[in-house]
Design brief:
The protein is of the alpha/beta class and 280 residues long. The protein has a single domain (14-278), classed as Lambda Exonuclease, Chain A (Alpha-Beta Complex). Helices cover 39% and strands 19% of the residues. The strands form two sheets. Strands 1, 3, 4, 5, 6 and 7 form a six-stranded mixed β-sheet that branches. Strand 4 (123-134) and strand 5 form a beta hairpin. The relative contact order is 0.20. The structure holds iron/sulfur cluster. The site of iron/sulfur cluster has 13 residues, from helix 2.
């Protein structure tokens, strides 16, 4: 591959689960957002104000969990849970945390960013809500505040599940006495603030790791080699209802209703995490 990929993507670009999911959902969306870096201020889903409020509450919840995991007393953190929804999530999370007994683990690292080298000088980054290590076994936790519990098979196919476990297998040696974690000693758990009794567990295996790592490298090669302006628009026009570029692509002007969005597609198109990861 030459120094300048045909796609025009910067060779210092750090791929993330969010940017790779954008490509999986619609290659043109990836190009507009991550290569052309086009910010288009359309509403993603309606009702816009309610969705924005929910997003901000979700961010506040992540902050509460992080502060508690860093050792700030629960009573002090709990005072910041200043809305009924946030207070509800906080109470559910406290019960979950007590059951997990995080204090007895060797490693408890919230908001952890890891990065691993990919093909052709690119990098792959992941930002975990929490990494816990006990007796050589690593668990990646991700807190979900979506209004619906995403079905487990849909989560299994999401880039986040594939990227996070692979990045830990590649770049987690620092948390395992200097040796990489064996894939069999890695697990990812999604915990849902509105469905606290129903977390989704994803163990890992050497075969899955090999499959995912080859897939990720091949996907990045494909992205880099696609000529600029030739990233195809998704054939699933329903996805355009929830995409901020729909006017730009001539795929409608009105945002779709959040209530009608597919269960496996109820994450925002672009997340702060993605911006932070890509900036590495
Ligand atoms: S509007 Fe549709 S085709 Fe255009 S970038 Fe968004 S998802 Fe892709």
């Amino acid at each position: 591959m030459s120094d300048k990929p045909a796609s025009g993507i910067s060779i210092s670009f750090a791929f993330s689960q969010a940017s790779l999911q954008a490509y999986a959902d619609c290659p043109r969306r990836f190009e507009l957002r991550h290569i052309e870096r086009l910010n288009y201020p359309a509403v993603e889903a309606e009702p816009a104000l309610e969705n924005e409020r929910h997003r901000q509450t979700g961010e506040a919840f992540h902050l509460l969990a992080q502060q508690h995991l860093l050792g700030i007393p629960a009573e002090q953190v709990g005072r910041l849970a200043n809305s009924p929804e946030l207070a509800h999530w906080w109470q559910a999370w406290l019960m979950f945390a007590v059951g997990q007994d995080f204090a007895s683990a060797q490693v408890v690292s919230p908001e952890l960013m890891l990065s691993a080298p990919l093909t052709a000088g690119f990098r792959l980054t992941a930002k975990f809500d929490l990494l816990v290590v006990r007796a050589g076994r690593a668990t990646i936790f991700d807190w979900k505040t979506s209004k619906r519990r995403t079905p487990t098979p849909h989560l299994a196919a999401r880039m986040q599940t594939r990227v996070y476990r692979a990045v830990l297998a590649q770049a987690g040696a620092h948390f395992n006495g200097g040796a990489p974690f064996a894939p069999e000693n890695i697990e990812m758990i999604y915990w849902f603030a509105d469905f606290p009794q129903d977390p989704a567990h994803f163990p890992y295996s050497a075969a899955q790791y090999q499959r995912d790592w080859e897939f990720l490298n091949q996907r990045v090669k494909t992205i880099a080699a696609t000529p600029a302006g030739q990233f195809p628009l998704t054939a699933d026009e329903k996805a355009c209802d929830y995409c901020t570029y729909r006017s730009y692509c001539n795929r409608g002007v009105r945002a779709g209703a959040e209530s009608a969005r597919d269960l496996d597609d109820n994450e925002p198109n672009f997340r702060l995490e993605d911006v932070e990861e890509s900036a590495l």
